[in-house]
């Protein structure tokens, strides 16, 4: 079943990437269930039918990113450890690359190569794609277009590579015992993460499940960090100090295959800001955070972590519509240019 699911999703991506906008309905009709549903990062959010997914997500993206390529770094499948019935999911992670020739979501075109970092969880039921969760680093495209919406970030901003081992594309099944080891380490790490009040220092706590030379590939607005010491300084410590309370809502899907594993939530966390995180003010309200985490295990500890946080949605709940603000500023800039030269 897992191998068939991999082949189904792989074939779907090949057809999706090759299709013209007029052919997308046929592609989704062939591969997706009639009641296909979609969860996407903001501004896409929840969509309950394939036609609207095509119109809202894929047609605009393919029109803006000409000659689009899917550059996958991780491709894996497994049974959802949170589902008693063992539902089957496939994960694809990497970049969608193309020539950014048309404005997209109000982000100005560049006429140059652009990389949209993404991760997608896809459930396959009876040979059809039943649902998917698609997170993309839209702010990363904004930075490439010269319209960074965030204050200076604590980590590094870069086009993020895949695993150092270059073995993340698992088109065939991996040994089950390796996946079990990976899932065990991920679960232990989650348990440690849930206890912000333990007596260990942050670095000591992280060292229980992470290699010293770990890499945390964070989203645009936060950035990437290398080594436990820098990760604690550049993100984890800041994050913990920036919220006065948190509620863990659980995950929708979590599994591992081989040395890789991950999960997504909808939402994973509800957080009460105390101020300081990415310039946010304190609040008495809780705001939901949607996250995808993908991990690579090396031996008995985690070595790499690719993180997708729906920051556009997190800000949107607090009354800050980053995409709308960008469009407004772009329009004002164009108006200023017109008034200046004519």
UniProtKB/TrEMBL annotation:
Coiled coil: none
Biological process according to GO: polyketide metabolic process
Gene3D superfamilies documented for this protein: 3.10.450.50
InterPro entries: Cyclase_SnoaL-like, NTF2-like_dom_sf
Protein name: SnoaL-like domain protein
């Amino acid at each position: 079943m897992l191998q068939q699911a991999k082949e189904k999703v792989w074939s779907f991506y090949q057809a999706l990437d090759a299709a013209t906008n007029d052919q997308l309905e046929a592609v989704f009709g062939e591969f997706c269930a009639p009641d296909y549903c979609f969860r996407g990062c903001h501004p896409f959010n929840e969509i309950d039918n394939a036609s609207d997914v095509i119109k809202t997500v894929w047609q605009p993206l393919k029109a803006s990113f000409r000659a689009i390529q899917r550059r996958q770094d991780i491709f894996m499948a497994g049974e959802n450890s949170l589902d008693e019935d063992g539902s089957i999911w496939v994960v694809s992670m990497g970049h969608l690359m193309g020539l950014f020739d048309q404005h997209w979501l109000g982000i100005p075109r560049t006429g140059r190569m652009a990389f949209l970092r993404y991760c997608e969880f896809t459930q396959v039921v009876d040979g059809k794609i039943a649902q998917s969760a698609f997170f993309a680093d839209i702010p990363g495209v904004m930075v490439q277009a010269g319209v960074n919406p965030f204050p200076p970030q604590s980590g590094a901003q870069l086009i993020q590579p895949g695993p150092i081992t270059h073995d993340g594309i698992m088109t065939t099944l991996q040994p089950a015992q390796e996946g079990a080891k990976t899932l065990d380490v991920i679960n232990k790490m989650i348990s440690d993460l849930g206890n912000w009040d333990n007596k260990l220092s942050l670095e000591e706590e992280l060292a229980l499940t992470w290699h010293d030379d770990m890499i945390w590939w964070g989203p645009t607005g936060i950035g990437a960090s290398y080594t436990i010491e820098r990760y604690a300084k550049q993100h984890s410590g800041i994050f913990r100090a920036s919220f006065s309370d948190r509620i863990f809502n659980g995950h929708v899907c979590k599994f591992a295959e081989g040395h890789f594993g991950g999960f997504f939530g909808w939402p994973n966390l509800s957080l009460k800001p105390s101020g300081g995180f990415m310039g946010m003010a304190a609040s008495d309200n809780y705001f939901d955070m949607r996250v995808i985490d993908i991990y690579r295990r090396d031996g008995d500890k985690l070595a790499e972590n690719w993180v997708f946080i729906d920051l556009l949605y997190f800000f949107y709940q607090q009354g800050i519509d980053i995409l709308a603000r960008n469009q407004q500023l772009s329009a004002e800039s164009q108006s200023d240019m017109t008034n200046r030269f004519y």
